[in-house]
Amino acid sequence: MNPYLAWPKSAKVASVLFMVISGGFILISAKEILIPIALAVLVAFLLHPLVKRLTRWGIPRIAAVILVVGTSSAFVAGLGYVVSSQLKSFADELPSHEPNIELKVRQVKAMFKGGTLDRLTRMFQKINRRTEEADPEAAAREQVDKGAAASPETAEVAREVTDLAGSAAAAAENTVSPGGRGEAAPEPPPATSQAGPPADLSSAAASLMNSPLISSIVNILATAGIVILLVTFFLVQQSDIRDRIVSVAGRGALATTTKALEEAGMRISRYLLMLFVVNSTYGIAVAFGLWLMGVPYAIMWGLAAGLVRYVPYVGPWIGATMPIAVSLATSQGWWQPLWVIGLFVVLELLSNNVMEPILYGHSVGLSELGVILAAIVWAWLWGPIGLVLATPMTVCLVVLGRYVPGLRIFDQMFGEGAAVNPAVRLYQRLLARDGEEAEELVEEFLKEKSVIETADNLIIPAVSLVRQDLAHDQIDDSDAERMSEMLRDLMEEVIDKGRAGNDATPPGETNERPLVMGVAAHSEEEAVLLNVLNAVCSDAPCRVEILSSKLLQSERLAAITERSPELVIVSALPPGDLPYARQLCKRLKATGSARRIVVARWGHAKSVDRSPQLRAAGADDVVSTMAELEPMIQTVYHMQQVSRLAGNAPEGRAVVQAG
Fold first, then answer.
1. Which residues form a coiled coil (predicted)?
2. Is residue 575 reached through a cis peptide bond, with omega within 30 degrees of 0 on the bond before it?
């Protein structure tokens, strides 16, 4: 047994918080080391199928790894060379499009002239002028400046004053020496024509290497080299690394570790492969479409669009920004930019709604909210590269959460499976007095399931939760009564829709159908579940009557004795139902008013089966689901038909059959 399961809840919460906080601190502090390792792991997952295929063809593993890694590196380097050369050509060509850019800017300004933006601009200018007029000092200075500019005589006087002030300052500087007043200042040494020493080449090289651009290039190349080295090592030593991870986990966790590694590897490999296919086809489609439209350097923009699409959500529109801007700068009209925008919109819709659902499916195992939260968290931890690594890294955490109890929070927060099953959701909505959402939940369930499956998998578990919380004082009697009433109304509105028009009995034979009566053992929740019998019996030619739980037991027994039904169903809901159900069965058996008694002990656990005690009290059968009860109700009608045939048969034939 896992010792973690025996920990108190507070210790479990504290351990999870400690792991999350310490893990976040390590991820932030050691990101310079962890980012290349994470990139290398993802690239190794992407290239592993190719290496595996080559080894199956008889190529040695080391040679296959070198071939795959070398070819991939050369391909990436070639793409980088093409992009850099096209980018340089575009930068050299851009100044020639300056007149077209100015024309577009003037057209945009003319388009918005007199509009909302223009009116707002003029309003702010008017407010600024009024503010300056309200400042008297600023107004006086403005008047002086205007007067000086308007009067030539005033301007001449100002120039003379300025010249006199300059002459006085020069005379004072010539007559005052550094040593004291009245001494002549020493003449400066004559200038020499000899040039200074040549600049130090080492200092120039150091300053060049310390420039931000060179530092960024060096860091990128160093990271790329480390990633290539790690990818080669991971692919060559794959079996050894796997064995080491299993040995660290220990013999007791061998099965869990193996399943986690297999599931994580399968999900990440499929995700990366499908992501590569989607982004590659997206980039090719962008390049081809831009080439048809005549946008310059279409290959470069298509490649950039495919690369930035690895960044979730914002990547596609970042990739669309530059082609749209280039089209605006180089095209003569406005049609080409509009066509470029339409191209990206159409491709994004096709990619999101057609290709990704077909290729991805549910292979990743993350919810949409989980993907968004993962992108935010990893971008905060590792910056832009964290957006690229967000989905694969979160997949690993979700897989660990499925197999490691202490990390289950990651599966619950980011996994695609619902954290709450439908029955708990229905109970929670009833507890929150949200009848509309509860009705929507039942309707959605009925679209995929039958009435019997809806009762067994949704309604009965929800009512059982009501009963359990009532027994443990989590809710009071008023809450239980309110939720029971909501369930009763809900089933009348929703379940009756599913059985509308399914009456299998022809008109005029209602009174001839066998009678099935339902009676609750002692609570209102048990009576609510009996209402589902009307839907269950929609295809059975039987009459179903439900006795109110508010009647006294003697009144219910009298009603059953008076009607003499073919079948009596005693509804019992654990816990605390057994004494009431046994007493009711004994009294029904004593009166002999029912031909058959079935106790429906809804959702009881097999480990606490009380069927022998109920049978000893007079019950003919004990069931726990509607699926078990429905065939018994169907049998009642067939037994009645057999009895009628036997009663209507000729006497001689009956004797022969008896003999």
1. none
2. yes
434 and 487 share one domain: yes
What mean pLDDT is predicted for residues 17-46? 85
The CATH number of whichever domain residue 459 belongs to comes to 1.10.1240.10
Co-location of 472 and 554 in the same domain: no
- Structure token pair of residue 588: 């029904």
A 10 A CB-CB count for 204 gives 10
CB distance 556 to 449 below 8 Å:
no
Residue 194 DSSP SS3: coil
pLDDT at 221 over 70: yes
Same domain, 564 and 494: no
Give 540's DSSP letter.
Answer: S
* Amino acid present at 205: A
* Per-residue pLDDT tens over the stretch 544-556: 788 877 778 788 8
pLDDT (mean) for 401-413 = 76
Residues 459 and 543 in one domain: no
Residue 142, classed as helix, strand or coil, is: helix
CA distances from 23 to 4, 16, 29, 385, 399 (A): 19, 10, 10, 18, 17
Q: Which two tokens stand for residue 393?
A: 């890294």
- Return the pLDDT at 649: 46
Co-location of 470 and 522 in the same domain: no
CB 636, CB 516: distance < 8 Å: yes
Q: CA–CA separation, 521 vs 577, rounded Å? A: 7
Q: Which helix or strand (DSSP H or E) is residue 78 part of?
A: helix 61-93
Q: Which domain holds residue 130?
A: 1-134+220-236
Chain-centroid distance of CA 161 in Å reads: 76
Residue 425: other Cβ atoms inside 10 A: 17
Instruction: Kindly report the pTM of this predicted structure.
Output: 0.57
Tokens of 627: 């699926």
For residues 48 and 235, is the Cβ–Cβ distance under 8 A? Answer: yes
User: Who wins on pLDDT, 657 or 395?
Assistant: 395
Q: What six digits make up the tokens of 560?
A: 């059953």
Q: Does residue 309 lie within any of the structural domains?
A: no
Q: Give the Cα separation of 391 and 411 in Å (integer).
A: 13
Per-residue pLDDT at 422 exceeds 70? yes
- If asked whether residues 458 and 543 sit together in one domain, one would say no
Q: What is the average pLDDT value for the chain, to the nearest integer?
A: 75
